[in-house]
Design a protein that fits this description.
Layout (H helix, E strand, L loop, with lengths): L3 H52 L12
């Protein structure tokens, strides 16, 4: 006959192992999402600057960018 405390401990250790695996998986997914959001934010900043440059052309007495 098996010890009920040993069986319970085994189940707890297995559950802890699965929880740790889930935590690692979720952490990796959060890092991927953060990287994707940061990339999209950079793209939006670039697009916003480009649109601002198109909508606000330089004044006649100012030099155009890159000149």
């Amino acid at each position: 006959m098996t010890d009920p405390h040993a069986d319970r401990l085994t189940r707890i250790e297995e559950t802890l192992g699965f929880a740790q695996h889930d935590l690692d998986t979720l952490s990796a997914q959060v890092r991927e999402i953060f990287d994707a959001v940061a990339g999209l934010s950079n793209r939006m900043d670039t697009l916003e600057r480009r649109l601002t440059d198109l909508n606000d052309p330089p004044e006649a007495d100012e030099e155009p960018p890159g000149a």
